[in-house]
Amino acid sequence: MGEEGKSGRPRGLGTRLTHAARDRKLTLGGVNPVVQKASTVIVESASKLFEPGGWTYGRHGTATHEALQQALCEIEGAEHCVLAPSGLMACILPFLGFGGAGGHVLVGDNVYGPTRRFVDRMLPRWGCEATYFDPQIGAGIATLLRPETTLVFVESPGSMTFEIADAPAIAAAARSANVVSVMDNTWSAGVFHKPLTLGFDLSVQANTKYVSGGADILNGAIYLNDDRLLARLKETVADLGVNVAPDDAYAVLRGARSLAMRMDHHQASALEVARWLTKHPAIARVIHPALESDPSHALWKRDFTGSSGLFSIALKPMPTAKVHAFLDALDLFGLGFSYGGFESLVIHCDPQLKRTSSTSDLGGPLIRLSIGLEEPADLIADLEQALAQVS
């Protein structure tokens, strides 16, 4: 809908998401788009059966998908958005589109576990080599680039250890070598961080998390401004038969309408809980880049405009049985691997931590907290009673 209305005044993200994709051709007069379901599409004439870019099959998307793409582009300030049926698929589509036999990719050592699993298990089968790098390498990544390198993939911050990457430096090094750069931007939901503005070619998100917000949808998106890269991604999506159900597209859009407001609440609540935890005697360290004490705080302050509800704590050294006792004692925090929904979640991270090119001296067992929409005072009380059982 554009950054400015008739008043000429720049519109905020909350306003843009409320009014995005409400053209009558998409809504038929309602305030929400229609849920258009189609496999077979009847074209107008024989000459249009093979028209480049024409809508000839349901896998190409419907009015519902077009509405979602329009709204999502408002979040990241992107010209184009490619949809995926899950956040993981959004992460791996760039590898499939720009990697290949004889090629080489660079991957941040702190990436989302399933992304790393794909890199470790699938890429070698296709003869594509991967090198992991310290996520805080910054401009030093130039020393790892090879003539056969085609992709650099970064997650910032990492979704368990929360290192912030020097995005402009990494993007500049990749661009100078004509290498496609990709950032997993799920932590910020695109509200507080704009990788495309910082020089990255692609920004990916798991809409399963904050964008949908309801803990009931699997979806992902890739954002970009480059027409050439868009064509390659669209080819990859078509060749793989990837598509998103219209009901899912509708549900993600419904959640996205309230994203800006929810992110403000997640941010404020998480910071209140995190600051309380810094003073607790059972906590060795609180890992949250928006805290002044965090090693990544300076980069976060430079490149981000806010923070989400996801952060980690390192408990003081204790046996795994005590860690489990703490987790099992929690009442309001569910034991679950996702984040970004209305509910607060917690996981023990140590069993899935993998590092090959960097080390993290955490000080004790690593616990990740996803702060939901509950009252922070209630969450603090819950953490206090659970920590009391293991202190």
Description of the molecule:
- The protein is of the alpha/beta class and 391 residues long.
- It folds into 2 domains: 78-256, Type I PLP-dependent aspartate aminotransferase-like (Major domain) (Aspartate Aminotransferase, domain 2); 259-388, Aspartate Aminotransferase, domain 1 (Alpha-Beta Complex).
- The chain has helices at residues 13-19, 24-27, 63-76, 87-98, 113-121, 167-176, 227-240, 246-256, 259-277, 297-303, 320-329, 376-388, and strands at residues 80-84, 104-108, 129-133, 149-155, 180-184, 202-206, 220-224, 283-287, 310-315, 334-335, 345-348, 366-370.
- The strands form 2 sheets. Strands 1-7-6-5-4-2-3 form a 7-stranded mixed β-sheet, with helices on both faces. A 5-stranded mixed β-sheet has the order 8-9-12-11-10, covered by helices on one side.
- Helix 5 (113-121) links the parallel strand 2 and strand 3.
- Helix 3 (63-76) packs parallel to helix 8 (246-256), helix 4 (87-98) packs across helix 7 (227-240) and helix 9 runs parallel beside helix 12 (376-388).
